[in-house]
Amino acid sequence: MINVGINGFGRIGKSILHQAFANNKIKIKSINFPGFKIDRIASYINHDSFHNNKQLNVEIKDENNIEINGHTIRLLDNRIPEKNMWKDSESEYVFETTGKFLTKFKAKEHDAEYLIMCAPSGDNTPQYLYNGNHSEYIGENIISNSSCTTNCIVPLIKILHDYYTIESCNFITVHAATASQNILDGPHLKKRNHRSAFNNIIPATTGASKSAIKILPHLKGKIYGTSVRIPTGNVSMVDMNVTLQKDESLENILDVLRNHKEIVVSDDPYLVSSDFMTTTNPTIVDSNACMNIGPNQYKFTIWYDNEWSYSAQALSMLEHMHNFNTNSILPINSYI
């Protein structure tokens, strides 16, 4: 059993909780949710605008503990991590979902045995991505699970390069709005983000290309990306153009992708973004929206639930870490 703590309980933290309760290998032991009223926790967990999950039986045991489906979870209320707060709740692995502890120095404040940042790191903390470079994990205590967009593009890029050799890759992620944006026009530190997320398509930047290169360093100088934010609540899409060294028919390439379990190729011509809500696979290639655009040049359209599939990827990486750390005969140094 993998004992887990969750720091922060927004879109990703909540998605991780629901998926963990469908996984008999994972037990959520604690949630750090500063400032939240415990009497509202059941409603918050079981009601969601996007994900129609199976209802969990949530009961309040006391001011610090809740019970979900008969399993006790400790609720913490610490904006600043306290020493031993995870160890005292027997949480061996911690998901950092707040985006406030994205360097190794900051992450060490948690004093957790293992910590997974649910965002790209702001320093040289290693980034690992399931079905990307997870097999290169060597037991580090603090890692980053990179971004939702990186988790979407890397499995496809890796396969294309392995089979056909990528000469260049550029993409734009058409990304659903997130909580970092303004609902209505108002002050914001980032350019253009002071405008309403409800009413605008907003050009933005993405760190996915830099993160992808950290995961696939042999493709440095060949991957470039940007993004736009659109007025939808969830599910995003990547429009990717690649130039391959080998010329191949698009149908043959799609057949190769169909033979890889880490990729889903959708052949339904009628699907739109909401049809991909609450999907766990981060790389869903829309075959009817792909095309050959020139010699050795191809356009791929890729769907991903930027909340649910990212959380599924984080849990897959967690399981891989635990298996490695449990079965490794090598001593694991603290905070590698």
Main traits of this protein?
NAD binding; Dihydrodipicolinate Reductase, domain 2; Glyceraldehyde 3-phosphate dehydrogenase NAD(P) binding domain-containing protein; 7 helices; disordered C terminus; globular; 2 domains; glyceraldehyde-3-phosphate dehydrogenase (NAD+) (phosphorylating) activity; Rossmann fold; 336 residues; oxidoreductase; alpha/beta; single chain
Brief characterization of the structure:
Helices cover 22% and strands 26% of the residues. The protein is built from seven helices and 16 strands. A hairpin with a 2-residue loop joins strand 3 and strand 4.
Question: Mind explaining what this structure looks like?
Answer:
InterPro entries: GlycerAld/Erythrose_P_DH, GlycerAld_3-P_DH_AS, GlycerAld_3-P_DH_cat, GlycerAld_3-P_DH_NAD(P)-bd, NAD(P)-bd_dom_sf. Keywords: Oxidoreductase. This is Glyceraldehyde 3-phosphate dehydrogenase NAD(P) binding domain-containing protein. By secondary structure, the chain is of the alpha/beta class. 22% of the residues lie in helices and 26% in strands. It has two domains: 117 residues, 3-Layer(aba) Sandwich (Rossmann fold); 159 residues, 2-Layer Sandwich (Dihydrodipicolinate Reductase, domain 2). The protein contains seven helices and 16 strands. Helix 1 links the parallel strand 1 and strand 2.
